[in-house]
Amino acid sequence: TAIGTGLANTNAIITSQGATATSYAAGLARAYAGGGYNDWYLPSIEELKKLYQNRLAIGGFSDIAYWSSSEIDESRAVLCDFWNGSAYNFGKFATALVRAVRSF
C-alpha cells in the first residue's frame, strides 16, 4: 500500500493474471503508452491518495473511484474515491477508473 510500491504491485498482478491485457486495471495501466512511454503502472493506494491531494494541480480526474494496485485478497482491492479522498475495499468485479502513472 505504501508510496513506491505501485510498480511492484502492478508487476505481481500481471504475473498472476498472465499476459498484459486491457481486461483488468493493472494490465490496462501497463498497456498505456501515453507520451510514447511504456513504463506506466497502476499506483498503490498511498500513491493514489497523493494524486488525490494534488488533483487540482495535476488535472484530468473525475469525481469517482479509481483502482489502486493495493490488493486485500484475490477478490478485493482498494479504491480511492476522488469525490472525497476516501479509500475503501471493493470487489474486483466492480467498475472504476484507472489512472496510470510513471515513476519520476
Report on the architecture of this protein.
- The chain is of the alpha+beta class and 104 residues long.
- The protein is 31% helix and 19% strand.
- It has 4 helices and 3 strands.
- It has helices at residues 6-17, 25-31, 45-53, 55-58; strands at 65-73, 76-81, 87-91.
- Strands 1-2-3 form a 3-stranded antiparallel sheet.
- A hairpin with a 5-residue loop joins strand 2 and strand 3 (87-91).
- The protein is globular and about 35 Å long.
- It starts with 5 loop residues before the first helix and ends in a 13-residue tail after the last strand.
- The model has no long low-confidence stretch (mean pLDDT 94).
Looking at this protein, list some descriptive labels.
19% strand, alpha+beta, 104 residues, 4 helices
Counting DSSP E segments of at least 2 residues, the number of strands comes to 3
Q: What is the radius of gyration?
A: 12 Å
Main β-sheet, in a few words? 3 strands, antiparallel
Mean pLDDT, all residues: 94
Task: Give the structure's gist in a few sentences.
The protein has 104 residues and is of the alpha+beta class.
Topology:
Blueprint: H1 6-17, H2 25-31, H3 45-53, H4 55-58, E1 65-73, E2 76-81, E3 87-91
Antiparallel strand pairs: 1-2, 2-3
Helix pairs in contact: 1-2
